[in-house]
Each structure stands twice: as structure tokens, then as C-alpha cells.
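Input set for joint prediction.
Command: fold jointly, output C-alpha cells.
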Amino acid sequence: MKKKLFLVLIFLLITVNISGCWSRKELNEIAIILGTGVDYTKDNKIQLTYQLVRPAAFGGGGMGGGPGGGATMNQNITWVVSATGDTVFDAQRRLSQQISRHLYLGHNVVLILSEKLCRHGVLDVINFFHRQPLSRGTVWVMATPQEAKKVLESHSELQMTSAQAVGFLARLRTGYVLRFRDFSQDLASKGTNPVLTRVELKRLGVTQGPGLEKAHHHQEVVLTGTAIFKGDKLIGWLNCPETQGLRWLKGKVDRMGIIVPSPIYSGKKISLEVMKGKTKVEPIYQKGKIKFYLSTEAEVDLIEEQGEEDFTRPEIIKTLESTAAIEIKQRVKTTLDKVQGEYKVDSFGFGEAFHRKYKREWSKLKNRWDEEFATAQVYLMVKVKLRDTGMQGRRASLKR
Amino acid sequence: MIYATLILFIPQNTVAYAKQDAWLSFLIAFAGGVLISLVVINLSLCFPGQTLFEYLPLILGRWPGKIIGFFYVWLFIHFCTLVDREYCSTVVAAFMPETPLVVFLIHGTIMFAYITYCGLEVLARINQLFLPLNVSLLTILFVLATPEMKVVNILPVFDTGLLPLAKSTLTPLSWFGEIITLAVVIPYLAEQKNVYRLTIKALFFVLVLIEIATLGVLLVFGPTLTSSYLFPVLSGVKMINIANFIERLEIFPLIVWITSGTVKATLFFWAAALGSAQLFGLKDYRPLILPLAVIVTALGYLLHPSIIDLINFLTQAFPFYALTFEFIIPLLLLMVVLIKGSGKK
Amino acid sequence: MIFLLSLVFLIIIYLEVPPLVKNKSWRELIAFAVFLWLGMFLSVPLVLGFDLPSPTKAIEAIFKPLANWLKPP
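C-alpha cells >
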């Protein structure tokens, strides 16, 4: 009898609990956020913009078609909403009063911060994204000289939404990209200053299709360089070529193109692609002077030549390698001059390299590292190795 | 029977003090844990077949022994409550913020009570079932997170100096010291002779698991971010994203947490139930299970107003409080036994 | 809530007490009663909404000097 009672009790408990829907968030009760933008308004308030997915547009059978199941014409896939408030949560609260579902941050792809906010300082807003249990360290963080809201009010031709398009762009490493985790780590570190990817909404290409009378100009979100920070405040931008120099300094150069002048035929160019590259930073601290020796090693592939060099001959390859090395050095120097000379910050993590080697000296230098770094000498050594020459050895049109 | 406690919170203090050397402090704590377990085992072997609660009165005399015994019952109840509360708070803070804490506490204690009712062997079987699962899950997660790891995050080694390193060792040491439960378990072990080897093996195993978690988190986040997170392991697993396909694996550390936490808390619960039964001189501890469950639930709710308070307690006062019972008292007892020559050797 | 809690206590008593009485194991009954009283003492005020002092505070007070030494930098 007693056993039976006990069993009945346990069964009752199980039935109540196994359904476990106290903190439930049903799929049809949430609004999935794909892109987040934060602006700083004129009256010093924070404007939060969410790019929400309209789920009805994602479902259904019409997905068989294009890559990624591109949307059909004239269909609204996303809904971009924004609100202002004193804090991020204040703005979100205002938004959630107007939106019929729970805002769900778990699938957020990008976080775009506007220039005005970055110049004001990002510490005011990013803590929200740290504390939210649903927010992730894998979100791509970017800065834009435009308004973040404007950037999110866009769509993509190939992906379902512009937020996803930026995410894929970042995954392809087409610029210097970093995620929320990297950004927070850089912010917290004394040995480096954070940088952010710069994105812009730019007119890009023309869309055309059957039945369309005239071509439509399309605006797409693209990566256009890097934002340089001092502490949590933005102090300047790097354009695309300078970003390449930054990538060399950070040692993240996979699949980057380099165009070098031909060593033999003047006026002709040669295109190379970096397949593998790394940069080693060796700090030297002598008599109160800081020096950095950088040694970069790169493996490149030949993509095309305009001249008629014969790349079956080892000495030609040697010359090309040294020309490429000079070109890379030039790139790096331009970036260094701008960041170290003009902005006077260490965006490259050299301070951390210094910390690793000189533990004791670091504790004295760490609080005025940027000033110390501005006076530091940086020496550069580049070694390039030509790995492959594509499908050809020498040009077919070469006159023998 | 294999006895292993799994500890998956990485104490913030350890990282805050030792920074990138936190993994070292766990190594040192392991050595301390071995020392503690040697004391406990030696003490137990002086009184074969008897638990801590039975030989305490033999060493100290009837009443002082019983009083110290009741302290130990409290200690086990407290440990059990703490573990219960840690896991429940994790679930509430990280996964289900709308659900009241007490719901999870009640579930937890019902489970402990039922397993304890079934006896130590069932507990050991549960551990046998979950341990391989947990170990493989942790290892797989570590491997999956390797693309996110950077070796520079744990460099330079020995950056913080000896005193911070020593301070950072205390909290993990007090957790290794929970091996004091051995004093109650040893009489029930199937192989009495191998107890040294088994214990060291179990401790080493725990060490490996902790190092997997600690090193993994440090390599992914570096010391500053790690010490700012409440649940670094969880945040670390959130970083896993392989080909936009294998991602959102947070449920797996939760599985590890809950299963291992259940085993650990139940062991303490069992020790408390058995201990109080032996102190009262009862033949069976089962009548005491349900009242104890009520106490654990109420205490779980009462002990700490918030998770921050819980973590502060665990990292500041707890090491000294726990080590008093885990190391100092057993050591004194052992000394008394050796001097008086009581017990059968 | 208080009714639910009383129900829980009644069920516990119903489950445990009759066999103890039947077997005349009075020692067990006393221990059971002691712990049940403790449990009631802790849980009833909680349900009724009284603030009980947390035992943690006592432990923290005892080990305060040492614990302060361990405060993070």
C-alpha cells in the first residue's frame, strides 16, 4: 500500500516536471535577432537597433532554388526596429513593449557600433552583451562610420539577410575581422589596444533579372577597413591597404592578395596570393629602450603575371620572392607609421609580447605602455617563399 | 567501487590571483589533496571496519567525540547543500532565469533522498554509468574548442609570484579536501587493501578533469576574461563553432555538471545520514533521510541570498572553514591515536 | 504554500512513523523527531516569509580575518 502511494507520488512529480516548461521559450513566441546595432544619438542617448527575422519568409517550400535559398522578389524578410534609451537595456525594454514576441539574442550574428558611439567609448554598451546569458562570444563586432541603424536597414542579394551576409563575409576573412571574445580580451588587456572591423553600406553592383525593365542598383554591407581604438575610444580608421599591413603585423594573412611590380619588366605587375603566413615578435629591452624585431614568413602562390618572367628558373623565383618581401615591408611600414606614428597606440599586441618576455619590467611599463610604444623602434624582416605557380610553369605566349 | 568527485566550477579567485598560472595552482592543490587523503586513510586504517562517526568517540571519549561527530554531520549537510545550491544556481542564472530556485532545489533533494534510500551501491553504480559519459564529453568539448585556443593566453608562466600562487591554491585545495568523505566510505569499500592506490588514482583523475576544464578555459579566454565570467566553462563552450555547424553545445557541460553534481551531493547526503544514524546509535539510517532532505532544501534556500554571495563564500571563508575539518582535525586525531596507541593496527 | 508544506510534513510522518512504532524502535523515532523538528524550524519561517539569519554569516564571521586575506586584488 505504502509502496503504491510512493509510486503514485513519484509519477505525479514526473508528469509535472518532465514537461519542464517553466522557463519555456517556444519557437513561435520569440523574435530572433540576427543583427544588432548601437548608435549614440545627438542628445547623448543610446539607440539600439535590431534586425529581426520575419520567420514566415524563411519557411515554406520555395527554398529549393538559389544558393542559401535566396528570397523571392518583393518579400520582406527582415524587420529592422530601433529605440533609444539611457542604457542598452532601457532601449531594449522600450522595444519589447512594442514587439509581440520575446526578443531572442541567441542567434545574433553581428554587433555593429557606430562611429559616434565608438568615439564616445564602447564600455558604456558592451557590458550588456557580456551579462546576457544568451549572448555569445562568437558574435562578429564591427564599427561603422555611418549610422548603425542605416547599415542594418539593408538586404543582401545572396544571403537571406544582410546580417548573415556580413557574418559569412567575416568568416571568409576578407578583412581583419574579430569576434566579441577577441574584442573584449583586447579591451581588458594592457598590452594592446582593440581594433574593430569597419563596415559600410555601399552601392555594390547591379541586380538584373527576367522581366526587369531597368537595372536596380543594389546596396550591400561590405568590409572597408579597420577602426583603431585607444582604450575603449575610437581614434581613427585604416583603409583597406593599411588593414593589410595590420594583418601582417597581427599574423593573420591567409588568402590575402599582394600585387607586386615585376622585377624585370617595368610597368608590369605580378599577382600573388598568401597561402600561409606568420609573424613573430621579438622584443628587446636595453638601457630603457624598447626595440621590436619582427620576422615574417610567408608562403605565396603565383596567380598571374603581366610580364614574361619564366618561373621555371630558380633565380627568377628568388628575385620575385625578394620583390614581394619589399612590397610586404612597405605595406607594414605604412600601417606602422600611421598607427604608431600618427595615432600613437599599440594595436598589435606588442605589449603582450613584451610582457611574455620581460615580466618584471612590464609591471613598471604597463600603465604607460602606449607612450613607451610610440618611441619604440620596430625592425622588420620578411621572408617570402613561392610555393606554387598555379597550373602553369612559364607563360604559353613566351617567345623562346 | 571507485570514488571520485567532479568539480567543475573554476574558482574565480584562483584565476584572479594566479592569472594564467591557475592550472599550476591546481597541480599544487592536488599534492595537498594527496596529503589530506593520506592522513584520512591512515586514521581510518587504525579502526578497520569503522566509520569516522564510530571511532570519534573511541578516540576522544564518548561526549566530546559525539559533539565533534555532530560537527561533521553538519559539515556533510553543508557540503551537500553547497553542491546542490551551486548547480541549481547555475541552471537558474544561465539557463532558466524565470524559474524559481526552490523548484530545482526540491528536485535535487528528492533525487539525493531516493538514491540514499537505495544505498551506497546504487550511488556507485550511478557514478559508473555517468563517469565515462562525463569524461568523454569533457574531452570532446576540449578538442572541439581547440581552434579557439591560443597558447599565448597562458604565457608567461610564473608571472604573479609565490604568494598569490599560494593564495590561489587554497580554494582548490579545500575542494580536493572533500576527500575527507573517505573516512566514512572506507569501511564500505570492497577492496580494503588497495585503498591507497584507489584514492590516489581517484584524486589524479579529478586533477586531470579539472586541468582539462581550466586549461581549456584559460587557453580560450586568457586570465582577465576568465576571472570575469561566473561560469567560464559555459562561456568557453559557447565559443565552439565548427564550420557554422557544430555550435551551441552548452547543454553538454550542463549534463556533466548535473550528473556529477548529483553523485557528489548524494555522497555527502549519504555520509550525513549515516553519520547521524551512527551518532544516535541507530541500526538503520533510512528513517532520517526525509527529515534531512527537508533540512537540505531549506538550507539550500537559506544559506546564500545570491550567487555572488555563494561564490564569495566559496572563495574566501570556505577554504579555511573546510580545511579545518578536512585537514586540521583529522591530523590532530591521528596524532592523538598515535600517542595513545589506541585502535588496532 | 504553508498548506503544501504541512502536507509534505504529514506525508513524511505518515511514511516513516507507523513502521517505527510497530517495530518499537524508539531511538529511531527520537532521532527522526529531532531532525524533523530541525527541518520544520528551518522551512516554516521561510515559507511564512520571515528572514532567518543564514548560518553562512556565522562561519564567515569566525573566519573573517583569514577570509579577508583571500579577497581578490
